[in-house]
Design a protein that fits this description.
5 helices, Zincin-like, 38% helix
Length: 144
């Protein structure tokens, strides 16, 4: 009597109907592999890296986050609630933070290039707001 190995220990692992080897349906480098959320996160990370080259002492202490939508019930004392992004100054042991809201930004953008520009403008605007500077000081191309 031979002891048969469980399927996950075999050299070839077939699907449940025995028709073929389990593998991804498309390669990881194909466009279908990345979700809209993943692409958005990559664009945000690219803009943060770009800003970090010019302003490392401004960008390094800031925490960046992406949320799907802004909160539906902001606190009553918060008069600066933004539709596309918000900044939170440092306080009580927390570093300064910038939060981008993915769905409103994606809805505002017409195409991929416009999405990249909207993300850039929001990050520059909120960074300038945190440090009391004008957005043009941080990025001369802001708003163009």
């Amino acid at each position: 009597m031979t002891h048969e190995l469980p399927p996950w220990r075999r050299a070839v692992y077939r699907n449940s109907h025995g028709r073929g080897i389990r593998r991804p349906t498309f390669g990881t480098r194909l466009p279908g592999y990345r979700t809209r959320c993943g692409v958005f996160d990559d664009l945000v990370a690219a803009q943060i890296r770009r800003l970090n080259v010019g302003w490392p002492d401004l960008v390094k202490p800031v925490q960046f986050a992406v949320e799907d939508v802004p909160p539906s019930d902001p606190t009553p004392w918060d008069g600066t609630s933004g539709l596309y992004s918000r900044s939170f100054p440092a306080g009580r042991g927390l570093p300064p933070r910038i939060v981008l809201y993915r769905m409103p930004i994606q809805h505002k953008a017409r195409d991929g290039m416009d999405l990249e520009l909207v993300i850039r403008d929001e990050l520059v605007l909120r960074l300038a707001e945190l440090y009391g500077r004008s957005p043009e000081q941080i990025d001369p191309m802001w708003g163009q």
